[in-house]
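Listing S7. Sequence submitted for prediction.
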Amino acid sequence: MTLARALPDSPTEWWLYLGVLALYLLTRWCLAWGQARKEHREHPVRAAFDDEEPGESHAGAAATGAFRSYRQLLGFIGGTIVIVAVASLTEGGLQLTLLCTLVPVVVVVLAYLDFRRARTYRLEHAST
């Protein structure tokens, strides 16, 4: 009997994790594209892909890894715990219901908070 799990055993769980990543990236790109359209940029699609400048300094993010605040870091840790708990601790109809309702909401909210934090950081440092 094994209580600890290392990696997902079924391909369904791998597809779930890849789907969560794809939903996060798609949401983040759509938010950046919408912001570029609001700013009336000439090429909003290109601007959405160039969300962060390559020469941008992340000196304030050194203490929390790539995250700019501890709240952002704790939000991602909490979201990850929720998603992994739904994927590994539930089965059948409950898992399907939670995957279709709770997980997308968690992922979209985290993508929005991440986008908003990055946008505020850019606006604060654009004036200096």
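Caption to Listing S7: primary sequence and predicted structure tokens for the chain studied. The chain has a mean pLDDT of 77. The helical segments are 11-38, 44-49, 70-89, 92-126.
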